[in-house]
Amino acid sequence: MSHTADTASLMDAVYRNQRHIYDLTRKYYLLGRDRLIRDLAPPVGSAVLELGCGTGRNLIAAAKRYPKARFYGLDISEQMLETARANIEKAGLSDRIILVRGDASDPAAPKPLGITQFERVFFSYTLSMMPIWREALAAGLAHLAPQGRIHIVDFGQQEGLPVWFKALLMKWLASFHVTPRADLHEELQKLAQGNGATCSYKPIYRGYAVMAELRKP
């Protein structure tokens, strides 16, 4: 079985039942998502892509905040996309949010959307779940239009939190196949240097999470 098929099967298994309560429970610990959406500020008429869109929660919030932008979501789990489609239809945004199934690490995955470049690309608590997350970052950069931005929020290394809390959190996250990326900052700097981009990286909530941004020249 291929990497993509393996990952798709795993994610479908993980979220087959969780997807029904995902948004209700995750709002308490997926911190910084709304801050990321506020920071997006896409230009009028621009295209925004979320890699790993899950239930569509972020896309719906962003589409409501920025009514003059177009939104697109990609996810490897058909289970999550099924929930996302229902949520988007319920929100009355089916004409402004388009979804496609695919592997975020595959540069060709967004091709069915009919768009080659996006002014904004974002990852919200997804890099920590992607087995080949470096490739996903590189693919995101490849999709980015000139002067575009990649926005990221994800789990940090909890460096400012008690050791016992970090140990418990890491163990709990591992049960959901989540691994905070200790070398995320280093990888972003490498991508920025190799592509003439600029990088910003900031721990939030005492390192519980991090927010990062790549700006393409």
UniProtKB/TrEMBL annotation:
InterPro entries from the UniProt entry: Methyltransf_25, SAM-dependent_MTases_sf
Q: Which domain of life is it from?
A: Bacteria
Asked whether the keyword Oxidoreductase is assigned, the reply is no
Q: Name a biological process GO annotation.
A: methylation
Annotated GO MF terms: methyltransferase activity
**What keywords are assigned to this protein?**
Methyltransferase, Transferase, Ubiquinone
Describe the location of the Methyltransferase domain by residue ranges: 48-148
Q: What Gene3D superfamilies does the annotation carry?
A: Vaccinia Virus protein VP39 (3.40.50.150)
Protein name, UniProt field:
Methylase involved in ubiquinone/menaquinone biosynthesis
